[in-house]
């Protein structure tokens, strides 16, 4: 089987650093008024520091990463996702000015990004983590973000890293788009389609099935991923935040109709314990059947919480196809093949561990019960013939 590691990558942090680094002047001016995190003494801890880029009289606070492996610190973090608390589906003005909280999730702001990268030669680093805590990075030299007039045009140079170069083809020399300003080169607004703000090129969602055919990931929840954004039809791998997604049910049907598929679910709790459950012979029916789920035999170490969902229809808040008297989708805040109602609900709310509410988290009953919402889960299929 071909490795499909690529489908599990999420981008969890984006950094810039100046490479004409540590050019502190003799008077210690930059020490007192650092232009960016690179001017901060390398021995300092990571944290929030005030910087004074050229053109910013009063300075502003940023989060400096002083110890990310292999990069020797001095990185100005301009985006971070870690707990799903901040909504990134925002408008032009909010991306311009920045939003969120520097100690958790945020976007630093496009004007600031422009101001920073206009000061000198900068490199860009993107760090990613896959679902088994493997880390990868991608670096690009010579990154610049233009001013608002240029629509924050992004340009960058050569790739280095171990994550693969996914940025050059689609995002170099691209303008920034948000839901209220479509500057991409696609006929749709990619920002609306993919629910973010970014230097979108053309959207490549149409290639998704091609990319993931041998073990398609249907869904993931991760630390830093909000399940409120569930029910999106699909997403491009290039979507740049720490995202959760749901591949659309029609595609799921289309895929599983092609042959014999197995289903694998991987999950992790907040002490990084991992479990999995596999089911052979998975099929999802067409819309007419209400995407009827059928499953074969269970194997795994997570416990069998899904067999109760065999031969069940899919329900959402606006379509009650379950066998309960009430709508399980409304009750347990997800979209799923609910029965009466569930043994596992991986599309429930991202409740981050123990929760007092009943069964409305990302629950896998056989492992952690109805009052524990998993840190991560991923659902994937693999063709067997
Ligand atoms: C994670 O799962 C293991 C094994 O079931 C359990 O011992 C541990 O307490 C769990 N950790 C958390 C934080 O729930």
From TrEMBL:
GO CC annotation: extracellular space
Pfam families from the UniProt entry: Fibrinogen_C
Residue span(s) of domain Fibrinogen C-terminal: 28-213, 245-385
PROSITE patterns with a match to the protein in the record: FIBRINOGEN_C_1, FIBRINOGEN_C_2
Signal peptide positions (record): 1-21
Gene3D superfamilies: Gamma Fibrinogen, chain A, domain 1, Gamma-fibrinogen Carboxyl Terminal Fragment, domain 2
InterPro entries xrefs: Fibrinogen-like_C (IPR036056), Fibrinogen_a/b/g_C_1 (IPR014716), Fibrinogen_a/b/g_C_dom (IPR002181), Fibrinogen_C-term_domain (IPR050373), Fibrinogen_CS (IPR020837)
Keywords: Disulfide bond, Signal
NCBIfam families cross-referenced by the UniProt entry: GGGWT_bact
Name of the protein described by the UniProt record: Fibrinogen C-terminal domain-containing protein
